[in-house]
Amino acid sequence: MSEPEILVELRGVSREYHLGKTIVPALVDVSLEIERGGFVVISGPSGSGKSTLLNLIGCIDQPSRGSVIFDGKDVATLSDRDLSAFRARRLGFIFQSFNLVPVLTTFENVDYPLRLRNVPTAERRERTGTMLEAVGLKDQVAHRPGELSGGERQRVAIARALVTHPDLVLADEPTANLDSATGEKIVDLMREMRERLGTTFVIATHDPMVAKRAQRRITIRDGRIESDSSMAHDQPEANHHA
Amino acid sequence: MHDLMLALRNASRNRRRSLVTVFALALCSTGLILFAGYVLATFCGDETRTTSGMGHLQIFRRDFPEKGIGSPAAFAIEDHLELQKTLREDPLLGPMINILTGQLTFSGLANNYEKNTSAAFVGFGVDPDDYAVFSSWNPFGLAKPELLPINELLYKGGPWVADDDLQGGSLGIGLAEVLEIDPPNGPRQATVINDTANPAPVAAPTPAAIPSPSGGEPADSDLPNFDVLESAAAPQTDTSDGRPRIELLCVPVAGAAPNVQSLAVRAARPFENVQLDDRLVLMHIDHASNLLFPGQPTQVNSLRILLNDGENTDAAAARIREILAEKRPELECRTWIELAPFYLQITAYLKVIFLFMLSIIASIVVFTIYNTLSAAIIERTVEIGTLRAMGVNRARIAGLFISEAVFMGIAGGLLGVVLAIVLGISFNQMDILFNPPSTDYYTKVEVLIFRYPMILVFGFVISVVAAVISAIVPSVNASRMAIVDALRHS
Fold first, then answer.
1. How far apart are CA B280 and CA B440, in angstroms?
2. Is the dihedral of CA B471, B477, B483, B488 positive or negative?
3. Comparing C-alpha atoms, which of B163, B219, B225, B150 is closest to residue B189?
4. Per-residue pLDDT at B377
5. Are the beta carbons of B175 and B280 closer than 8 angstroms?
6. What does the pLDDT look like over A85-136, one tens digit per residue?
7. Which residues contact A171 (CB under 8 A, 6 or more apart)?
8. How many C-beta atoms lie closer than 10 Å to residue A18's C-beta?
9. Of A55, A95, A116, the CB nearest to B392
10. CA distance, residue B19 to nearest chain A CA (Å)
11. Is B118 exposed, middle or buried (0-12, 13-18, 19+ CB in 10 A)?
């Protein structure tokens, strides 16, 4: 059996915030590796540093110290323009509040990341249609976010995050604004997409239901990794809830 | 293209705020266009008044404008008819010329012996037909004061000089007042004395004042002709046609004998300004020439040229100067702007006011758009963070907001142009009148927006440019937001 391929590596990463003259440490000397194709859950109490860790892995924040190595490249060496292109090409994001663009339709929201990558129109249409069908929203393509339920919006967000076939999808509390049944369906959908596309998922949550479905669970407390464990089961339970 | 679509949808997201912004932009644009139209109408009005009085170009002996009034006969243009022929037949210049005419400008003393009054005057000897063309010159289609009903009493009657009334002429109403030419309509109103249907008979020149046509000199050219003065001292009112007569005394050349001619007053009327009203005597050029050059063929001391198109003034002046340099070096040519520096002063003054107003309006536009975009950015902070996380770069984020501003600027500009057209038409039909400084007449306040469509373009462009400029700072600020801070925004 071959060694698992490392997608993201954090080396001695610290992140501090300045509140006036007070320095607040959010992450302290964190080192970890995330393997390609993993379904990783970062859990911990509020204020423990989950989102900060997720932001650093997602290259939307810079560490105060240490480095973030993505696929062998230190992202700190990239200019803002290159980093934007890098995120558009290799990362997908799912947010707690879905963060869809309200003036765009379901189709247009999912289509948007492909436009950022200048994918030809015909291919865009095909991939967007396929992805919306995969998340069960092919009948809502013309709806705007305001016309969708919370679960449907999160499905759109998942489709938007995955439509570019990114290496890594980062989800910050993806079930926090959903009822438990819808939340489970969303997590199962993410696991299913990971199975189907081989996409790596890193999810920050304090929802035990999500943590239970993780392949690997990292617990953060006071900005430090408290535990990092691989779970025994790695098979999505989506089939039971779909 | 997609970003433009997104910007357009975002601009219409908060419809009420966007509409208020667009309407504010439209009002600013409308205000600018209307004010620019008014300023242009003022420029054009001044140009029309000036050129209808003095022409686009004048030719005279050197220094005539500065010194000629003191010795008008000394500045007579020799062979002026030959020069006129040369200019008219010039292949480059000829087609540009509308009217080329001679004029005698001089000064002297006007006397009304009936009332025992006298006053200094400035005399204009003009060709009546050419004078009529000059007076009706209206290249910009503005409302002429003499055609406004409110000025009816000031301008009724006319023509002011006529070929069939060699000794008739008109006075400025101020001069008529001083000379106590009885005004039937009260002071500062046109005093119509002649009946144009029954022109007055041509009175014979004062016999003692005029040497023989053969060119004989006065009895003693070095001394005042006391016979003439004595003769002129008698009341000269011509009772045969009921028109008052005044005597015009002038000294053609310094030190020479004065000469006197009688003038039958056809009318008193306002001229371009009250200074002229108080001094001007308008008379037939032949009669004026007889006063300055007794017994000689008609002389002129300036040639006045009215062009078909004022835009050709500089080109025509350049050509005339070439011709004069070659054939008549003692003469010079000046443009109406060189002769009437007040025009440049007025235009400079109005330009300053316009720029002041432009800066105020542009400031309003800038702050309106700035305020609207700032509010939109605050509302969409999380969206900005999301787009940035998805890979939208800073320039594109800034471009989104600038595009929104451009859309609002375009909408505001277009609405402003439409409003300006509607209001401009309404404004011009409202017959708003005012009394220009130093004049006796009323003139109509007009806005010229169709003659110069560029001011409509200008109003539109200002709206768009101001919108873009005002969007730069908030857009750049939006693009520089830290992604995590933007995503955390609530």
1. 14
2. negative
3. B150
4. 92
5. yes
6. 999 999 999 988 889 999 999 999 999 999 988 999 999 999 999 989 888 8
7. A93, A94, A95, A161, A190, A201, A202, A203, A204, A205
8. 9
9. A116
10. 18
11. middle
For chain A, the residue count is 242
The arithmetic mean of pLDDT across residues A74-86, rounded, is 93
> Which tokens belong to A82?
């290159």
The encoded tokens of residue B373 equal 């975009």
Q: What angle, rounded to 10 degrees, do the helices at B394-429 and B381-390 form? A: 130
Taking only residues 8 to 67 of chain B, the set having a beta carbon closer than 8 angstroms to any beta carbon of chain A reads 9-10, 13
Q: Which residue of A has its CA nearest to B7?
A: A103
DSSP state letter for B203: P
pTM > 0.95: yes or no: no
Coil, strand or helix at B148: coil
pLDDT at position A232: 61
Cα–Cα distance measured from residue B230 to residue B232, given in angstroms and rounded to the nearest whole number: 5
What's the rounded Cα separation, in Å, for the pair B476 and B397?
Answer: 8
Q: Is the sign of the CA dihedral A114, A120, A125, A126 positive or negative?
A: negative
Q: Identify whether the C-beta of residue B417 lies closer than 8 Å to the C-beta of residue B27.
A: no
pLDDT confidence of residue B399:
94
Asked, as a colleague might, if the bond just before B159 is cis with ω within 30 of 0, I would say yes
Position B190 scores a pLDDT of 54
SS3 B249: strand
Distance from CA of B434 to the nearest CA of A (A): 53
What are residue B118's DSSP bridge partners?
B111
Amino acid code (one letter) for B429: Q
Nearest residue to A191 via CA among A219, A174, A161, A215 = A215
A101 touches chain B (CB under 8 A): yes
Report how far residue B216's alpha carbon sits from residue B359's, in angstroms, rounded to the nearest whole number: 69
Task: Using an 8 Å CB-CB cutoff, list chain B residues near A89.
Answer: 391
Three-state secondary structure call for residue B42: helix
**Which letter, b or e, does each residue of A224-239 get, where b requires 16 or more Cβ atoms within 10 Å of its Cβ?**
ebeeeeeeeeeebebe
Residues B400-432 have pLDDT tens digits of 999 999 999 999 999 999 999 999 999 988 888
Of B131, B242, B140, B130, the closest CA to residue B195 belongs to B242
Buried b (16+ CB within 10 A) or exposed e, B420-456: beebbeebbeeeebeebeebbbbbbbbbbbeebeebb
In the predicted model, residues of chain B with pLDDT beneath 70 are 1, 157, 182-241, 253-255, 490
Calpha distance B147→B156 (Å, rounded): 9
Is residue A2 pLDDT above 70, yes or no? no
Four-CA torsion B384, B388, B389, B392, nearest 10 degrees: 130
Predicted local distance difference test score (pLDDT) of residue B227: 40
**Which residue is it, tokens 């999505």?**
A236
Show residues of chain B in contact with A117, CB under 8 Å: 391
Closest CA to A178 of A199, A205, A201, A138: A205
Euclidean distance between CA atoms A188 and B354, whole angstroms: 68
What does the pLDDT read at residue A65?
94
